[in-house]
Design goal:
Order of helices and strands: HHEEEEHEHEHEEHEHEHEHEEEHH
Largest sheet: 6 strands, mixed
Oligomer: single chain
Helix content: 40-55%
Shape: globular
Number of helices: 11
Radius of gyration: 23 Å
Amino acid sequence: MNMKKWIAAAIACSALALGACGGQSGGSASTSAGADKVYRVATNAEFAPFESMNASNQIEGFDIDLLNAMSKAGNFKVEYKHQPWDSIFPALTNGDVDILLSAITITDERKQTMDFTNPYFEITQVILVQKGKNINSVEDLKKAQKVGVVTGQTGDFAASKILGSNSPKIARFESLPLVIKELENGGLDAVISDSAVVGNYVKNNGDKGFSMVAVPDFEVENYGMAVRKGDTATLNMLNDALAKVRENGEYEKIQSKYFAK
């Protein structure tokens, strides 16, 4: 090969290499990189119907189906790890996991330490009321003896705003199943939690006589998937994949599966 031909070939090879590696902040390049990496996803699988453990000890739920569909559409791989709610945020910060997926409400406070995808589900806080208790408003909550919440969730934030963060009326628990069990046992007058989760509980436990009370004082919230602060490659990959499953109809199918009207 003469010198001119060799230089032309070298330039062509360099262009191909740059084309394969360039633009990683964009969606297509991120998903290509994602195909060779398994993204570690932390979730607290105690929040049905978004994430819970089935009889085979496998994590399932709306969030899981959604991210699985996203990984297929975006050509990346994920693996899930169930762990306590209060441990998932340090796990992300410490680099033990890459993504948090656990019905996490996007808040200004959380955005200071992590980045969120575009919203993927809208909820409000509601009150799960014990049978025989007349609690229909925030003013009624103030008169209750004990109100249960999950520590660090937005139900906890709502109760703290209404009753005061150090109020002895607030009973904090590590998970939703624990706080609901205490309500069932009569140790609480009410529980504050996310509307879709409380609605799912009432729907599947009609024999217990509990009811869900919506009050206008609670603001609309949005769930998002979280990544480490500044991890724009993973964030763009997830946002691109979320857009794809909304466009191709998969999101609607998954939503209908868990929240059929």
